[in-house]
Amino acid sequence: MPTFLVFFTLSLLAAGAAAQPALSEFESAWLAAGAPVLRYAREISLPIDIIVQPQPTPGAVPMAMGFDGGRCKLVLSMRGNAQAAAILAAVPPARRALMIEAMTAHEVGHCWRYARGDWHVLPSGFTEAGVRYAGNPDLLKEALEMRETRREEAYADLVALAWTASRHAAQYGQVYDWLHAVRRARPVAGASHDTRAWLRLAPAGAAFAAAATPFDAALPLWRQGLIGDK
Length: 230
Hints:
Oligomer: single chain
Distance between the termini: 44 Å
Order of helices and strands: EHHEEEHHHHHH
Number of domains: 2
Shape: globular
Strand content: 5-15%
Mean pLDDT: 87
Strand order of the largest sheet: 1-2-4-3
Largest sheet: 4 strands, mixed
């Protein structure tokens, strides 16, 4: 049976996504929590479509960013997916919207990189090094792909924290502690989502210098973390 995706554009948020009958209460709550970030993305003309998967998606990442046809696709996979509730199970209910907003900022950080043509591209002054020792071409390819993913995840984590620092300064520590706990739960050092080296650079919101956008605010710390990424 083919898989059908329900597409929503950012204009849906202006009309009130929660009012759409195709959305479950859970999906509506996530979109409402992420709405400030998505409105900002629309204001700066990021090409984002919102996709809600109507079929059960057990084990899928609840919110993820994909790319197709020059546009970013924010995909919600909530139905029949215990992971959607588990990711925030340890968070007090009153704080969950804040964490969802940070997760949305993380995903929009991915879109920013993609839309600018920077996906998997190192910033000026950096060259690829440190994995050429692999004698097996397949292992070399795998190591490089893992490294590229880790860098993008690190940048997106820093965007989420920069967003929080600028919009919810008093709650920065709550978001930081939660995000650090999520990353610490993946104990394999150097894995594709091991962004702890970058998180250690931003234990407080003051780590981010004033910048025009959270994407710009994340760059100095991202570059600093890249120096030690092996």
